C-alpha cells in the first residue's frame, strides 16, 4: 500500500487526476481478488479518481489453460462484480499470452457482469486482438505496436480508442504506429504510461507525451489531447479530460505555456493541481 500511495502521489504532482490501476500480477484467482481489494483501499486514501481493472495477464504455472480461463469466468469475474471491485476487464491477447478465443470468452463474461472492456492488442505479434476489440466494441485496444492500417481502421469504425504506450515500446525497443497511419485510419488515439515493474517504470505524463511526439510523430497538441480528452474516452468517461461547459473541472496550473512541458520532456511540472474545482496539490 505504501508503494501504491507513493506512486499515486507522484502522478498527482505531475497533474494526473484520474488513473486506471490493473490487477494481473497476482495470477492465482485469490491473488487477483486481493489486488483488486487493495486498489479499493487505495481509492479511499487518494484524491484522484481510481478506475480498477481486472487484467487476465497470463496463465500461471501449474494450471491447464482451459481450467484457468474457466476459473476466471466462473469465480473471479463474478466475485469481482459482486464486490464491485472492478470497473473494467482487460485481457493480454497476444503471442505467448491468451488466444483470441480465450480473450473473447473472458470479455464476453466480463460484459455480462457489467464491466467495460479493454484489450492488450498486437504488442508482440499481430494476433487479431484489434479485430476482436472492434467486434466487441471495447473501450480501448492498448499497445498496438504491430497493428496494421486494417486493424486501426476497424477500431476507428467501431469507436474503439487506440491507446499507445510509448514507455513500454521504448523499453522493449519496439516501433509504434506512425502518426500518418493513425490519421489515415481516423482512429482516436490516447496515451498512457503503462506503469509496470517489467517494461515501463514511467510515471511522468509529460514525458509520455514527449515520447509520443518523437516516436509516433504526433504534434504536441495531438499528444496533449491524447493524454487528456481521448484518455478519458478510453475510460468511458467523456466528461473528464477537457475544459468546457459541463465538463468536470480537473485542471493544472503551469508557470509555462501549456505545451512547454512536452517540449522540455517533462520539465516545468504543475504549480497546482485541481480536481473537481478543488485544489488538491501545490
UniProtKB/TrEMBL annotation:
Which SUPFAM superfamilies does the UniProt entry name for this protein?
Answer: Metallo-dependent hydrolases
Q: Which InterPro entries match?
A: Amidohydro_3, HutI, Metal_Hydrolase
What residue ranges carry the coiled-coil annotation? none
Q: Name one GO cellular component term.
A: cytoplasm
Extract one GO BP annotation from the record. Answer: L-histidine catabolic process to glutamate and formamide
GO terms assigned for molecular function:
imidazolonepropionase activity; metal ion binding
Domain (Amidohydrolase) ranges: 82-260
What are the record keywords, sorted? Cytoplasm, Hydrolase, Metal-binding
Highest taxon listed in the record's lineage = Bacteria
Q: Does the keyword Metal-binding apply?
A: yes
- What's the protein here called? Imidazolonepropionase
Amino acid at each position: 500500500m505504501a508503494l501504491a500511495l507513493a506512486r499515486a502521489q507522484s502522478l498527482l504532482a505531475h497533474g494526473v487526476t484520474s488513473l486506471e490501476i490493473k490487477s494481473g500480477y497476482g495470477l492465482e484467482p485469490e491473488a487477483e481478488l486481493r489486488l483488486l481489494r487493495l486498489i479499493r483501499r487505495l481509492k479511499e486514501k487518494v484524491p484522484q479518481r481510481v478506475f480498477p481493472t481486472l487484467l487476465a495477464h497470463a496463465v500461471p504455472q501449474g494450471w491447464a489453460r482451459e481450467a484457468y480461463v474457466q476459473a476466471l469466468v466462473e469465480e473471479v469475474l463474478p466475485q469481482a462484480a459482486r464486490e464491485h471491485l472492478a470497473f473494467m476487464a482487460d485481457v493480454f491477447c497476444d503471442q505467448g499470452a491468451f488466444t483470441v478465443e480465450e480473450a473473447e470468452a473472458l470479455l464476453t463474461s466480463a460484459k455480462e457482469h457489467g464491466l467495460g472492456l479493454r484489450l492488450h492488442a498486437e504488442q508482440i505479434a499481430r494476433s487479431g486482438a484489434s479485430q476482436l476489440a472492434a467486434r466487441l466494441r471495447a473501450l480501448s485496444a492498448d499497445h498496438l505496436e504491430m497493428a496494421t492500417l486494417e486493424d486501426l481502421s476497424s477500431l476507428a469504425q467501431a469507436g474503439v480508442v487506440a491507446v499507445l504506450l510509448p514507455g513500454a515500446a521504448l523499453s522493449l525497443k519496439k516501433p509504434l504506429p506512425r502518426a500518418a497511419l493513425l490519421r489515415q485510419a481516423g482512429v482516436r488515439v490516447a496515451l498512457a504510461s503503462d506503469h509496470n515493474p517489467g517494461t515501463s517504470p514511467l510515471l511522468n505524463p509529460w514525458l509520455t507525451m514527449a515520447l509520443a511526439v518523437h516516436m509516433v510523430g504526433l504534434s504536441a497538441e495531438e499528444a496533449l489531447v491524447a493524454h487528456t480528452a481521448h484518455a478519458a474516452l478510453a475510460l468511458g468517461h467523456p466528461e473528464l479530460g477537457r475544459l468546457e461547459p459541463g465538463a468536470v473541472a480537473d485542471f493544472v496550473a503551469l508557470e509555462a505555456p501549456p505545451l512547454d512541458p512536452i517540449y522540455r520532456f517533462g520539465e516545468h511540472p504543475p504549480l497546482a493541481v485541481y480536481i473537481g474545482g478543488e485544489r488538491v496539490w501545490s
